[in-house]
Prior knowledge:
The structure is a single chain. The protein is of the alpha+beta class. The chain has 2 domains: 1-99, no CATH class; 100-151. The protein contains 2 helices and 4 strands. The protein starts with a helix and ends with a helix.
Amino acid sequence: xxxxxxxxxxxxxxxxxxxxxxxxxxxxxxxxxxxxxxxxxxxxxxxxxxxxxxxxxxxxxxxxxxxxxxxxxxxxxxxxxxxxxxxxxxxxxxxxxxxxxxxxxxxxxxxxxxxxxxxxxxxxxxxxxxxxxxxxxxxxxxxxxxxxxxx
Length: 151
């Protein structure tokens, strides 16, 4: 059985896309500054692809008469590349500089989450200690009141 023309159209387009992009593709060359720092651009890439086609009767014929139908098809694609950050490597220090401030805020929140959890845990422990101290002091006051009434 012969392959349909849309299959060859799709195969060609997908092979070319596969060659063009993969997960490890680096967009932009690393830049080395005069102080020895290496600056690597980090970008978000989006790809879109569409293909379609149709079999149709040639113009002027009313039925296919068992012959082959004509094929018309096309494909298209698009690429969007958006810079999002720069990775700066200096000596053994690595720093991420975000272009979008919201991303920077989320990174800081993730960075500070363990410290916040520790502080909350300490607050809970201090609250537990102070409430147990208050309970013991209030029970001592109740005993004193009872002693006072017993006399």
